[in-house]
Specification:
Elements (H helix, E strand, L loop, with lengths): L15 H9 L3 E7 L2 E6 L4 H11 L4 E9 L7 E9 L4 E9 L5 E2 L8 H12 L3 E2 L28 E6 L4 E6 L42 H4 L3 H8 L7 H6 L26 H5 L7
C-alpha cells in the first residue's frame, strides 16, 4: 500500500538557514547550523514578531516546546529557546533570546495558547519573567516555594521540606533532615589511586614495630622436657574408654555362638565336614 502525504519523509536543511535569515532581516542576531539543527538568535523585544513571521509565512505551524538554559557567568544569564515544527514540510527550527534575572521576555501566548503552560514552566524552573502572560505562576513546585530549581547556583539542599501527613490529612512543612551528609564523589581511575587518604583507609595503616619478637627459647613456644614428660605419662593418645577403665586392652565380648542356655538342634550335624557329606539311606 502506498501512503501519499504532502510532507517529505526526511526534510533537508539545504537553503533553509539562508532563506529564513533573509526573511528575519534586522530581527536576527545570529544564525548557525549544528548537529543537523538550525538555530536562530533573535532580538528579545522582537521574538513575537519573528515567531509570527515563521508561523504565517513559512509554515512553521506548531510551537512544540519552550526551554530554558542558565549560564551564570554571563551578564544575561538565561536563554529562552523556542522549538517550532512545520507539519507540511516535516522540518524543525529553533529560535532563542537572552534575558537577565529581571529582564522580561515578551509572551507568545498571543500566537499559541499552549505557550502559557510552557512559559510558566520556564518561569518556575529558572525565574525568567514573561511580559504579557496573565497567568504567570508556578506550575511544578509547591505553593510558597522559594527559589528556582534549575538555576545552576541553586543550593543542593534547602531548609524546609514538605510531605503529606496521614495523621493530619494535609501537607506539612518540616526542617530538612538528611539521613547522611552530602558526599562529593571522585570518579578517578581506581588503578591510579587517590592522592589523599580515603575514609577508612587510615585503619589499614600498620604501626611500626619497635622490637621484633622471636622464639629463641623453648619456653616461648610451649615445647620442652616438661611438655614431653607430660605427654609420655598418658596411657594412650587420648582414648576416653581406656582412661576411664584403667586398662590398656579392653576384652572383646564373647561370640554369640557360645552363649549358654541355647538348646542344640536335633537331627542336624553341627560339624562342617559332616554337614557337607552326602547322607546314607536310613539316616
Amino acid at each position: 500500500m502506498t501512503v501519499v502525504h504532502s510532507a517529505p519523509r526526511f526534510a533537508s536543511n539545504e537553503g533553509v538557514k539562508d532563506a529564513l535569515s533573509a526573511a528575519l532581516g534586522e530581527m536576527l542576531v545570529e544564525a548557525h547550523e549544528e548537529h543537523g539543527e538550525i538555530l536562530f538568535t533573535v532580538k528579545r523585544d522582537r521574538i513575537e514578531d519573528a515567531l509570527r513571521l515563521l508561523r504565517d509565512e513559512h509554515e512553521y505551524q506548531q510551537l512544540m516546546e519552550i526551554a530554558g538554559v542558565d549560564y551564570p557567568q554571563r551578564a544575561e544569564r538565561f536563554e529562552v529557546v523556542y522549538m517550532l515544527l512545520s507539519v507540511t514540510k516535516n522540518h524543525r527550527v529553533m529560535l532563542k533570546v537572552t534575558a537577565a534575572e529581571k529582564t522580561p521576555v515578551p509572551t507568545v501566548t498571543t500566537l499559541w495558547p499552549n505557550a502559557g503552560w510552557l512559559e510558566r514552566e520556564v518561569f518556575d524552573m529558572y525565574g525568567v519573567l514573561f511580559d504579557g502572560n496573565t497567568d504567570l505562576r508556578r506550575i511544578l513546585t509547591d505553593y510558597g516555594f522559594e527559589g528556582h530549581p534549575f538555576r545552576k547556583d541553586f543550593p543542593l539542599t534547602g531548609y524546609i521540606e514538605l510531605r503529606y501527613s496521614e495523621e493530619e490529612k494535609r501537607v506539612v512543612y518540616e526542617p530538612v533532615d538528611l539521613p547522611q551528609d552530602l558526599r562529593q564523589f571522585d570518579f578517578m581511575s581506581p588503578w591510579e589511586g587517590a592522592n589523599y587518604v580515603l575514609p577508612g583507609d587510615e585503619k589499614a595503616a600498620t604501626p611500626p614495630v619497635e622490637e621484633v619478637k622471636t622464639t629463641d627459647k623453648k619456653g616461648d613456644t610451649g615445647a620442652g622436657e616438661k611438655t614431653d614428660d607430660k605427654a609420655a605419662d598418658k596411657e594412650s593418645n587420648g582414648s576416653p574408654a581406656q582412661e576411664k577403665s584403667g586398662k590398656k586392652d579392653v576384652e572383646a565380648p564373647a561370640p554369640t555362638e557360645t552363649r549358654n542356655g541355647k538348646t542344640p538342634r536335633k537331627g542336624r550335624t553341627t560339624g562342617t565336614k559332616r554337614a557337607t557329606e552326602p547322607k546314607e539311606k536310613g539316616e
